[in-house]
């Protein structure tokens, strides 16, 4: 920095580009507007201007904020004295002159010209809406809903949330009781919780609308009774004011129904009092507000020892129904009723299994014998919280906690392990393999990420016998390459056929780099060096293949049977990941043998 320069001056855009600053200011008088500089310090430039508007006698006061990263970023423009039914943040009064999408702001345009052009556009859109000309409005504005809920976001309680079914509409009736399943959440403030709005009720306790909940609920959850009241609140982040309005609305209802309102108010009194305000909400573009929006208020009345209490808090509501969560991934709809068994929860199977859960596969079961060691974490999805735990159990728990629309389970044990001690046999009279065969019979796909040839040969065989699609994936030594193959019960070749083709060199084998072998302490199998970021290349192709097989046509499974991955060339240099697909016809020594 040059001597004598004020600190930070090299960060002010008007100091970096004085020519641009002059041009920006000069653009206003050309529109016969004389802006006033309200603030120009520490990177922030705010102007005020009286903006002439066509068809209006009085100009509109605009407050124009330049981005500290001007001209790369868009400016913000507020109309503090005007109220628009749309395209204006009711709290900040900022106008939406552009949609939120990227690529809308042209950094070559001067802000004055930008406002002139976009404000006129905005007013035309508002006029079209007002006149009910929805076709015209749709051409002028972003065709998206403009919901009220986000405006309550500002000051809501840190780390707390109440989840509800976004597909259920406004409840009939003006007020009532509600069941909220609450579990505490760790938080800096110590008071945070997650609630699930399970059931709305009338004041006398009769269920209203559908019950909502996830397939599995945490065991320490507590069911609390709260109250709800229906009215459209003003956009404010003042929790005390919202609570006052809710109580005012209930009091208004009490004039007609004193006993019933008292019942609601009494039932909703506890260590955690939850009041829900429900209002008509725009959930899709158009004139109708046919969804329901929620804002929640929470009070913690002081206990005798004075440990809790304090002001009411706003708690964020989030839509968490199946359709709310999976609307971004149409294929998920076809995956929700499907089941996958993931054998081997190591560096490849763990990521693949989690991704299947994320994609919406309804049930994922992990089979593994291993525990998570700190040294695994560099290529395993979970870190310290899972060290020393069973890999299969840790993943299943993680899914249950984070992807509630997927049922996750696990079976621990070494598949096919032989016994030498009768006393060590599991109890019961069933075959020791019965639990595994039950899983295989019941699943829609077997994902084999065991990287064990014994497991692979056995599972490939039994999957075919039981009529289940079998997907196998592994990386080679040194993560020089990998394989993902699928074998369908009615497919031509099988996993053994593939091995024969490899022997014949009719299908290229994945590259191997033996430099990268690590022998761990003790009598363990050699493991390999290589990062999760390379191994996940295989996990992802496993997931794409499995999703393709499970999705009943809504995601293309691809026309190949065997996919061979190359990550390193002959000289051991990294190449861009390259997949090659091959068919796997029946081999004359196996499925193609004449009998
Ligand atoms: Zn808008
Ligand atoms: Zn075969």
From TrEMBL:
Q: State the source organism's domain of life.
A: Bacteria
Note the CDD domains from the entry. E1_enzyme_family
A Gene Ontology MF term for this entry? ubiquitin-like modifier activating enzyme activity
Biological process GO terms, please?
cyclic threonylcarbamoyladenosine biosynthetic process
Under the heading SUPFAM superfamilies, the entry gives:
Activating enzymes of the ubiquitin-like proteins
Q: Where is the THIF-type NAD/FAD binding fold domain?
A: 333-516
Name the PANTHER family for this protein. Answer: TRNA THREONYLCARBAMOYLADENOSINE DEHYDRATASE (PTHR43267)
Query: What is the name attached to this protein's record?
Result: THIF-type NAD/FAD binding fold domain-containing protein
Q: Which organism is it from?
A: Bradyrhizobium australiense
Origin organism lineage: Bacteria, Pseudomonadati, Pseudomonadota, Alphaproteobacteria, Hyphomicrobiales
């Amino acid at each position: 920095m040059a001597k004598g320069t004020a600190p930070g001056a090299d960060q002010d855009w008007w100091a970096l580009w004085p020519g641009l600053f002059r041009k920006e200011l000069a653009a206003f008088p050309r529109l016969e507007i004389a802006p006033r500089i309200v603030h120009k310090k520490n990177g922030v430039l705010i102007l005020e201007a009286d903006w002439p508007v066509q068809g209006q006698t009085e100009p509109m006061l605009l407050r124009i904020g330049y981005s500290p990263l001007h001209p790369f970023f868009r400016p913000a423009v507020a109309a503090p004295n005007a109220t628009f039914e749309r395209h204006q943040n009711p709290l900040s009064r900022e106008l939406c002159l552009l949609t939120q999408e990227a690529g809308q702001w042209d950094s070559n345009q001067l802000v004055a010209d930008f406002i002139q052009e976009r404000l006129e556009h905005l007013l035309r859109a508002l006029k079209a809406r007002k006149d009910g000309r929805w076709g015209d409005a749709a051409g002028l504005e972003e065709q998206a809903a403009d919901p009220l809920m986000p405006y309550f976001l500002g000051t809501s309680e840190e780390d707390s949330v109440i989840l509800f079914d976004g597909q259920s509409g406004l409840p009939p009736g003006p007020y009532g009781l509600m069941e909220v399943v609450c579990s505490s959440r760790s938080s800096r403030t110590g008071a945070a919780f997650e609630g699930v709005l399970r059931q709305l009720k009338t004041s006398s306790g009769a269920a209203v609308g559908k019950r909502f909940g996830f397939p599995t609920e945490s065991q320490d959850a507590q069911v609390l009774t709260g109250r709800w009241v229906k009215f459209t609140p003003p956009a404010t982040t003042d929790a005390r004011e919202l609570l006052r309005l809710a109580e005012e609305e209930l009091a208004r209802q009490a004039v007609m129904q004193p006993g019933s309102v008292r019942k609601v108010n009494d039932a909703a009194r506890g260590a955690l009092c939850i009041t829900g305000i429900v209002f008509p909400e725009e959930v899709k573009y158009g004139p109708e507000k046919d969804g329901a929006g929620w804002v929640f208020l929470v009070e913690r009345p002081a206990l005798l020892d004075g440990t809790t209490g304090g002001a009411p808090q706003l708690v964020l509501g989030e839509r968490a129904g199946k359709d709310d969560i999976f609307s971004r991934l149409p294929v998920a709809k076809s995956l929700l009723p499907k089941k996958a068994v993931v054998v081997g929860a190591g560096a490849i199977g763990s990521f693949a299994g989690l991704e299947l859960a994320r994609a919406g596969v309804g049930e994922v079961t992990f089979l593994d014998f291993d525990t998570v060691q700190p040294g695994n974490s560099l290529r395993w999805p979970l870190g310290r919280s899972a060290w020393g735990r069973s890999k299969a159990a840790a993943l299943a728990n993680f899914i249950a906690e984070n992807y509630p629309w997927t049922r996750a389970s696990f079976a621990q044990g070494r598949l096919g392990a032989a016994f030498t001690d009768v006393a060590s046999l599991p109890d019961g009279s069933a075959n020791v393999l019965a639990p595994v065969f039950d899983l295989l019979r019941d699943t829609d796909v077997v994902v084999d990420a065991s990287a064990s040839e014994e497991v692979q040969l056995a599972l490939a065989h039994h999957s075919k016998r039981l009529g289940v699609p079998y997907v196998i994936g592994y990386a080679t030594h040194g993560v020089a390459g990998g394989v993902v193959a699928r074998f369908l019960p009615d497919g031509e070749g099988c996993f053994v056929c593939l091995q024969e083709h490899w022997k014949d060199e009719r299908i290229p084998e994945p590259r191997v780099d033996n430099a990268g072998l690590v022998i761990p302490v003790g009598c363990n199998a050699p493991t390999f060096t290589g990062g999760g970021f390379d191994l996940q290349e295989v996990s992802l192709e496993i997931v794409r293949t499995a999703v393709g097989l499970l999705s009943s046509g809504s995601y293309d499974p691809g026309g190949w049977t065997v996919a061979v991955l190359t990550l390193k060339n002959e000289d051991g240099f990294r190449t861009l990941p390259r997949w090659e697909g091959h068919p796997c016809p029946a081999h004359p020594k196996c499925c193609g043998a004449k009998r």
